[in-house]
C-alpha cells in the first residue's frame, strides 16, 4: 500500500512544522546530519519481491534515535509511532489515517539491518564531524572505561549446566523423538529435574551439595549429547536449523569447560561461557564494592566538551590504560591538538607518562619526583579532576538511567553494539540540541 504524505518536512508553511521545530524532539531532529547518515546504509533496493519497506534509510536511523530518546520498549515505540505525528515526522514518514504499523518487532529488525549493513565507526565519525563546530574545549580530553550489562540472569555453573540439559532434552531430543516417532532413550532427566527444583528452593546451598549437583548434571548432559548424536545418526533425514546447531556447539563447549573446572581444583578457563543464549558474554571484573563482576560489553569512552564517544567496544576484558595512545590519536584526527588530559589512577603507567610528556600534554596524574606543581597548575589539575569525575563518570549513569542502557535486551553481539551505540549518540544529540540554552564552561587552554 502506498503511504500518504500528509505534509513534508520541507513544507515550512505547514503549521505543524512550526510546532515540531520548537519542541525538544524538533531540536533533536535539527541536530542530526540526516543526509550524511542515510549514505551510511546501502541504497534502498527497488523492484524486489515482497512489500515495500516502511522506513527509508533516514527513517531507520530516526527510529533508533527515538528508541533511546524516549527510553521505551520496542513494542511501545511502535504504539507511539502509530499515534504520534511528531515521531512520524522525525523519521520522515507520516502515516495515513487508515495506516498503522502492526509489526511490533520492527525496531528489532531495523537494529539487525543496521548491524549487518553499516559500520558504526563511520556513523560516529559522521556525527562528530557534524557536531565538532559547536563543541567547546576540544583541547581537553577525558577517558574512562565502563561496562554496559546484558540482560541475563546472574550466571552460576549449576544454572548454566541445567539450562544446557533442558535445551538438549526438552528442546531437541524429546521433540525430535516425537517428530520421527522414535522411542525415547532411557534417561534420568525427570528425576534430575525434581532434584534440581529441590536444590533451587534451598536457602543455603553448601559447597558439598553444589558439588553433588554439578557432578550429576555433567553426567546427565554427557549422556544427553550421546543420545542426541545416536538419534541423528539413525535418522539421516533430520534437518537441524542453524540456531540448533549453534546451541549444540555451545553446549559441547560448556560441557568441556565445566568438566575441566570440576576435575581441576583452582583452575581457570579462558573465554569461559557464562550464558547459553549469549555465548559471546564474558565476566568483566570491575572491582566495584557492590558489583565486583559484570556481564556485558566493556567500552572505553572518550569525552570532550561534554560529548561522549567510543574508542572501542569489546565483550572481552581489556586493560583500558593501554588505550591511551590510540585514544589521543583518534581525538587528534577528529578534533585537533590536545593540551589537557583527564583519566583515573589506572592510566599513569611509566609508558603513558613518557608519551604524554613527549606530546606536552598536561594531565591530572600525580606528579612523580621532586618537582612540584605551582599554584596555577594545581588549580588546573583540580579542575580537570572535577570535570572528569562529574561530567564523564556522570554521563555513564545518565546513559544507563535515561537512555535504555541499564540492561541491554538485544539478542546478538552486533545488535548489542548497535543498542549501546545509539543510546550514547542519542544523549549526545540531545546535548547538542540543548546547547544554546546553557552557556558553555571554559577550560583554560
What does this structure look like?
With 445 residues, the protein is an alpha/beta fold. 51% of the residues lie in helices and 9% in strands. Strands 1, 2, 3, 4, 5 and 6 form a six-stranded mixed beta sheet that branches. The N and C termini lie far apart (58 Å). Residues 1-6 have low confidence and may be disordered.
**Terminus-to-terminus distance:** 58 Å
Order of helices and strands: HHHHHHHHEHHHHEEEHEHEHH
* Strands, count: 6
| Largest sheet report | 6 strands, mixed
**Whole-number average pLDDT?**
88
Strand fraction equals 5-15%
Structural class call reads alpha/beta
Overall 3D shape: flat
> How helical, in percent, are the residues?
40-55%
Low-confidence stretches: 1-6
Q: Mind telling me the C-alpha Rg?
A: 27 Å
Our count of helices gives 16
Summarize the structure.
The chain has 445 residues and is α/β, with parallel strands linked by helices.
In terms of topology, how is this protein built?
Layout: H1 15-22, H2 24-30, H3 34-38, H4 57-70, H5 74-83, H6 85-90, H7 106-117, H8 120-131, E1 140-149, H9 157-179, H10 189-200, H11 207-234, H12 242-263, E2 283-285, E3 293-304, E4 307-314, H13 324-335, E5 340-342, H14 350-358, E6 362-363, H15 375-402, H16 413-433
Helix pairs in contact: 1-2, 2-16, 4-7, 4-16, 7-16, 8-16, 9-11, 9-12, 10-11, 11-12
Question: What characteristics describe this protein?
Answer:
single chain; 445 residues; alpha/beta; 16 helices; 51% helix; flat; disordered N terminus
Amino acid at each position: 500500500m502506498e503511504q500518504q504524505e500528509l505534509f513534508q518536512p520541507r513544507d515550512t508553511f505547514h503549521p505543524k512544522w512550526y510546532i515540531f521545530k520548537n519542541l525538544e524532539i524538533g531540536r533533536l531532529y535539527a541536530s542530526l546530519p540526516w543526509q550524511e547518515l542515510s549514505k551510511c546504509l546501502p541504497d534502498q533496493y527497488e523492484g524486489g519481491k515482497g512489500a515495500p519497506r516502511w522506513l527509508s534509510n533516514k527513517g531507520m536511523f530516526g527510529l533508533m534515535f527515538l528508541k533511546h530518546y524516549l527510553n521505551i520498549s520496542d513494542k511501545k515505540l511502535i504504539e507511539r509511532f502509530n499515534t504520534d505525528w511528531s515521531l512520524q515526522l522525525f523519521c520522515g514518514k507520516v502515516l495515513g489515517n487508515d495506516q498503522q504499523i502492526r509489526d511490533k518487532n520492527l525496531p528489532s529488525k531495523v537494529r539487525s539491518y543496521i548491524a549487518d549493513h553499516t559500520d558504526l565507526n563511520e556513523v560516529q565519525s559522521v556525527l562528530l564531524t557534524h557536531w565538532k563546530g559547536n563543541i567547546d574545549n576540544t583541547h581537553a580530553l577525558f577517558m574512562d572505561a565502563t561496562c554496559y550489562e546484558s540482560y541475563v540472569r546472574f550466571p552460576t555453573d549449576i544454572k548454566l549446566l541445567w539450562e544446557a540439559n533442558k535445551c538438549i532434552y526438552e528442546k531437541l531430543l524429546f521433540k525430535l523423538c516425537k517428530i520421527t516417532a522414535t522411542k525415547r532413550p532411557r534417561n534420568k532427566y525427570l528425576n534430575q529435574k525434581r532434584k534440581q527444583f529441590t536444590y533451587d528452593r534451598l536457602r543455603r546451598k553448601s559447597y558439598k551439595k553444589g558439588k553433588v549437583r554439578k557432578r550429576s548434571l555433567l553426567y546427565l548432559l554427557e549422556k544427553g549429547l550421546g543420545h542426541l548424536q545416536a538419534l541423528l545418526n539413525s535418522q539421516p533425514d533430520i534437518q537441524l536449523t542453524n540456531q540448533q546447531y549453534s546451541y549444540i556447539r555451545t553446549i559441547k563447549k560448556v560441557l568441556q569447560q565445566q568438566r575441566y573446572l570440576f576435575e581441576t581444583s583452582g583452575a581457570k578457563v579462558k573465554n569461559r561461557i557464562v550464558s547459553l543464549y549469549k555465548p559471546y558474554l564474558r565476566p568483566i571484573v570491575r572491582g566495584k564494592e557492590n558489583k565486583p563482576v559484570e556481564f556485558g560489553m566493556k567500552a572505553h569512552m572518550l569525552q570532550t566538551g561534554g560529548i561522549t564517544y567510543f574508542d572501542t567496544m569489546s565483550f572481552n576484558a581489556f586493560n583500558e590504560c593501554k588505550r591511551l595512545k590510540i585514544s589521543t590519536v583518534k581525538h587528534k584526527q577528529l578534533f585537533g591538538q590536545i593540551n589537557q588530559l583527564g583519566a583515573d589512577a589506572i592510566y599513569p603507567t611509566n609508558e603513558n607518562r613518557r608519551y604524554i610528556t613527549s606530546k606536552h600534554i598536561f594531565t591530572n596524574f600525580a606528579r612523580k619526583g621532586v618537582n612540584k606543581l605551582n599554584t596555577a597548575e594545581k588549580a588546573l589539575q583540580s579542575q580537570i579532576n572535577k570535570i572528569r569525575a562529574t561530567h564523564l563518570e556522570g554521563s555513564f549513569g545518565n546513559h544507563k538511567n535515561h537512555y535504555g542502557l541499564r540492561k541491554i535486551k538485544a539478542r546478538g553481539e552486533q545488535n548489542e553494539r548497535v543498542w549501546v551505540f545509539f543510546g550514547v549518540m542519542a544523549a549526545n544529540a540531545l546535548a547538542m540540541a540543548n546547547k544554546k540554552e546553557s552557556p558553555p564552561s571554559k577550560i583554560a587552554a
